[in-house]
Every structure is written in structure tokens, then in C-alpha cells.
Amino acid sequence: MKPRTYFGLALLFPYVLWILCALIVFGLSSLETPEFLNTVFMPVFFYAFGILLWFVPYTILAIGLWFWSRGRSAAILYKAGVVAPFLLVALMLVELLLVSLPADSFAELTRELVGQSVMLGGFSLIFGYLCVGVALGVLKLLRARNLIAEETPIPG
Length: 156
What we know:
With 156 residues, this protein is mostly helical. The protein has one domain (3-144). The chain has 6 helices and no strands. Helix 2 runs antiparallel to helix 4, helix 4 (42-68) packs across helix 5 (74-100) and helix 5 packs antiparallel against helix 6 (106-144). The model has no long low-confidence stretch (mean pLDDT 84).
């Protein structure tokens, strides 16, 4: 597999993670679990229900990155993967602004928007870099097993 192919497939990882988290939440919802276990699985619950917030912005980001990545080198794709969570935060803030527009007044909008932006941006960065970290870890593992071909430099 080529690095560019892997980059395109890695863009699907947040969706796969969501499916796994949704299955875990579904499985745990039918069980009576101790309180400490609920605390341990809280990030899984956040991610599973977070799809209501991140699905549209992340889908726009993934499609944009997929189109943009055509013909790019592996080094540039690596840098794009590192910056992608910040792009997701920007898209999520646009979504938050659009959803918050029907506020009664501008003062109310700004007061609520700051707190929501910090919380939403923080969660987006945490989960974004979790996904990027896992994708980079899998890339290193695949490279170590020679399942991803090293990119040959284009003669210039």
C-alpha cells in the first residue's frame, strides 16, 4: 500500500472509532454497571454521542483533505494530519456559530459562545489528536512490517 492510500483510509478512522464506541455504549446500556466503570467509560460515551456535533464538520474536513491529498507527498500528508484537528476545531466553531445564531441578543450569543467554544474546541482537539495518534501508530506498525511502501522521491 502507498502512503497516500493509507492517508485516505486513515480519514475513515474516526467513523470506525465511533462505531466501536457506539457498540460499547449499546452493550453497557443493557448492563447494570458500577459507578467507577461509568467514569472509566465516560470518554467512550462522549465520543459516541459526539457524532451529533462532529459528523458534519468532520465529513466536510475528510472530503476536503481527501481531494486535497491527491498528488501530495507523504511528508506533506503527515503535516496535514498533524494540523487536521485544528481545522476540525475551526469547522466545529463555524457549526456552533450557525447553530447559536437564533440567540435573543448579541451579548447572550457572545457569553454562551465563549464557554461552548472552549469546551467544544478542547474535546475536538483531544479526540482529534487521539485519532491522529492512533493512525500514525498504525502507520509506523505497517511500515515496520513493510506493508506500506516508502515513497520514492520524484527525480527533479
